[in-house]
Amino acid sequence: MNIVMISPGYPPEMGYFTRALAQTGATVIGVGDQGGDSRPRAPRAGLTHYERVSLADEGSVLAALQGLARHVSFDRVECLWEPYMLLAARIREAFGVPGMTVEQTIPFRDKEVMKQVLDAAGIRTPRHAKARTVAEVWEAAERIGFPLVVKPIAGAGSADTYRVDSFDDLGHVLPAIRHVRRVSVEEFIEAEEFTYDTICAGGEVLVDNISWYRPRPLQGRSHEWITPVTLALRDTHQPSLLPGREMGAKVLSALGFQTGFTHMEWYLKSDGEAVFGEIGARAPGARSVDIMNYATDADFFLAWAQAVVHGQVRQQIERRYNAATLFKRAQGSGRITRIEGLESLLARYGPHVCVVDLLPIGAHRRDWRATLLSDGMVIVRHPDLDTTVEMCDRFGTDLQLYAE
Ligand SMILES: Nc1ncnc2c1ncn2[C@@H]1O[C@H](COP(=O)(O)OP(=O)(O)OP(=O)(O)O)[C@@H](O)[C@H]1O
Ligand SMILES: [Mg+2]
What we know:
By secondary structure, the protein is α+β, with helices and mostly antiparallel strands. It folds into four domains: 2-99, Rossmann fold, CATH 3.40.50.20; 127-187, 2-Layer Sandwich (Dna Ligase, domain 1), CATH 3.30.1490; 190-320, D-amino Acid Aminotransferase, Chain A, domain 1; 321-404, Aldehyde Oxidoreductase, domain 3, CATH 3.90.1170. The chain contains 13 helices and 19 strands. It has helices at 13-23, 58-69, 85-95, 102-109, 111-120, 134-144, 167-176, 217-222, 242-254, 288-296, 300-310, 342-349, 385-398; strands spanning 2-6, 27-32, 49-52, 76-78, 128-131, 148-152, 162-164, 183-187, 192-201, 204-209, 211-214, 229-232, 260-268, 274-280, 322-327, 336-340, 353-358, 376-382, 400-403. The strands form four sheets. Strands 9, 10, 11, 12, 13, 14, 15, 17 and 18 form a nine-stranded antiparallel sheet that branches. A four-stranded parallel sheet has the order 3-2-1-4, sandwiched between helices. Helix 1 (13-23) links the parallel strand 1 (2-6) and strand 2. The longest helix has 14 residues, at 385-398. It is globular, with a radius of gyration of 22 Å. The protein starts with a strand and ends with a strand. The model has no long low-confidence stretch (mean pLDDT 94). The structure holds adenosine-5'-triphosphate (ATP) and magnesium ion. Adenosine-5'-triphosphate is lined by residues 126, 149, 151, 155-159, 161, 186-189, 193, 216-218, 265, 277-278.
């Protein structure tokens, strides 16, 4: 099977998916932006061939593939990186390759179209409206009521996303989002936030995962002192999560999803109601696939590749642990000068700590608003949920990075 993999080495976890495709025996043709030192090196990277293009320039991508198509046929076109999902769909259409079409991809990219399709299927979404002008935002706010959320229709990483509690607030928020062309105005859902992630083939869910965000992503993105945690739950069949799991299955069938990874976010209200958040036809980012692996000792990168190539997952997947990743932000600005608390945390929790990947002393701080990875991350796991949460809290408060 010949598979075109879009952006096979960037972001870094794409390299794991690419290698997993090769592990199944597929021939992988990489098409990406990266050159120079960051160029994925075939065959180490799992690639039979790498074509360097500008992914933003669709015409040149198609031209490069037309050149290759004289020598090989393409059986699948895979892309797990949000900005190029539509490009992948256009390539499939241009070369008659099975998989998601442009029309099937749009509801995964446009949050208004997404909710329209799901509303029609009877799925509970936040009350919502799209707006292009200040007057439309104002009118939507009148109709939906406060509190509400204003966010870009094609957003990611909680960028330009605001909770708005009053018309007064709205007056302050509007200038900050002036550069966003199309916004979604939504009823604010007071709730805990979870994911529902799947690997599917032929429209069947083969493997799934539920992760819990602590705290809600918008809060984590608004306050620098917070250590955001994503926790892959061991017990994903507990009754309180059932409404989200059931909603997940309905969402996938309403959108006609067939094969690949999906990443849905949903809200669980204190009265037990599940409300849809959003869904991507891709794996979650920010090391979230790693915690699925640590929760199960399985290989979700390979499980995805097996679903794509064989239409089935050829591994036993058993949930043994709760596994959490936490993202640290240093205090101060500039370069990391000191890391405190790590030794005593390792002495206490060592066997349950899977990964410690902090910026080294002397490194420049990352922009915590631009990347959830922030100044480093830690992964912990434990069979017991309360113990896992306690470890997250301890790492949140007792591990500190300082910068000057
Ligand atoms: N209707 C809503 N009610 C309450 N909170 C919301 C709502 N919409 C968005 N949020 C908050 O803003 C965050 C980001 O929103 P959303 O997931 O829609 O956008 P995104 O930018 O694509 O997110 P991501 O961080 O997953 O890339 C949510 O995780 C949630 O915390
Ligand atoms: Mg989101």
